[in-house]
Amino acid sequence: MAEGGIDRTTSQTESVPGHSSLYSRHSQTYVENVSVEICTIMTRLGYGEEMRRWRVEKHRENDRMHNAGSHDFTEITAGSKAEGLTCLLEGDLDLLTVLNGVLCVEAGISIQTILDGVEVYRMDTRVYPGHCRLLQEGQTHTRWE
Are strands 6-7 and 73-78 parallel, antiparallel or unpaired? Predict the structure, then answer.
């Protein structure tokens, strides 16, 4: 085949013809070099794997310290902070607040094995997509009213 032509043979994982030109081989090397350079810059800015792991551990430690007190709820850091993708004051802080002593179950789950003193709500998902309606199962405590 002449230099710069199109290779019409395809591999089992490839569905489009590959280019065999000298330009595309150099282009691949260029893309790899740019990728390495971007990775280096992102690491220097604090977005490298080591910093991300450190941030994740610090947010988990913060959650453990906060939840060690006697609260009626447990907070869990979520989103980009939990993944270590953003610094402390960068972006928003997503927190998942879980009420202790309250359990939400899906349809079809037997509530006979759930301990006494736990408020149980059943999820009714026959509403708008991404939403649910909570149906109270049994008696509730007055602390949430």
Answer: unpaired
